[in-house]
Write a structure and sequence with these properties.
This protein is 38% helix and 18% strand. The protein is built from nine helices and twelve strands.
Length: 270
């Protein structure tokens, strides 16, 4: 089966001070996404920034960014409701009102670096229910083993679709360490039929992305997850990481999923 590449061009943390090629403004993000689409990305995972490059849940900024992306290419939009760990939950949750094809759903609160990433159970319930009302596909962000159990409880209560779509996030301080053993352990616990991708933060990005490609999963690529191609070599663009992801899929005799194939796989359309 072809593998889906999701481009995550910006994220909530890195700025142009960390790498001058990080896109932070709506026009820059849209241009980066369009270019990544032509390299094989079928999904754009979007964070938004204000004029000072700070993470924001401002609906006007978010809507402008999404509209610019849609004007440029037919890539599927996945909005991050994580925004930034310090952003208030209710502000983050309002982003689903943009009605993208997908949005992230974080089932648990956690330590995230030096701050608390607050996802209160009652708020998560409301957000999940609202996503169902709007027809927004939830992508469950699983940073630790217990997050899967929380996701399964949401499923069993009918708050999310029966067939899960998950991101296995490894390498965030406060979550799972980015090891092969942790990835395999989580894969062993996923329900049959789960659509999954690896989100590997930092130095383990290449190794864990290669494992995802080899084990039949999907791959996320972009400057949200790593600012380096290899030790000492900064990423010159999101394209370089998307192209590398396509190469990983090709190396294990898998193709890159098109937008239409991804729409069928994840959204059940077509």
């Amino acid at each position: 089966m072809n593998g889906v590449i999701t481009v995550a061009p910006t994220g909530p943390i890195a700025t142009t001070a960390d790498n001058p090629h990080v896109p932070t403004q709506p026009e820059e993000i849209a241009a980066a996404v369009e270019s990544a689409y032509h390299q094989g990305a079928a999904v754009a995972h979007l964070h938004f920034r204000d004029a000072e490059q700070r993470p924001t849940a401002d609906l006007d900024i978010a809507r402008r960014t999404v509209d610019l992306v849609r004007e440029r290419c037919p890539i599927l939009i996945q909005v991050s409701t994580g925004v930034g760990p310090a952003a208030p939950f209710e502000e983050r949750a309002r982003l689903v009102e943009l009605a993208p094809e997908m949005a992230t759903l974080n089932p648990c609160s956690m330590s995230f670096g030096r701050v608390t990433f607050d996802n209160p159970p009652e708020g998560v319930d409301r957000l999940a229910a609202r996503m169902m009302e709007l027809g927004v596909q939830p992508e469950l962000e699983l940073y630790d083993t217990g997050h899967l159990d929380a996701a399964l409880r949401l499923r069993d209560r009918g708050l999310i679709p029966e067939r899960l779509q998950v991101s296995l996030v490894l390498g965030v301080m406060g979550g799972m360490a980015p090891t092969a053993a942790n990835l395999v352990m989580m894969l062993d616990r996923l329900p049959e039929g789960t659509v999954w991708q690896v989100v590997a933060i930092g130095r383990a990005n290449l190794m864990l992305s290669a494992m995802a490609a080899a084990l039949g999963g999907n791959v996320r690529a972009g400057m949200e997850d790593t600012l380096y191609l290899r030790k000492g070599e900064q990423v010159p663009s999101n394209d370089a990481l998307v192209s590398r992801a396509a190469g990983l899929l090709a190396a294990v005799d898998r193709g890159v999923a098109t937008v239409d194939e991804t729409r069928h796989l994840i959204l059940g359309e077509g």
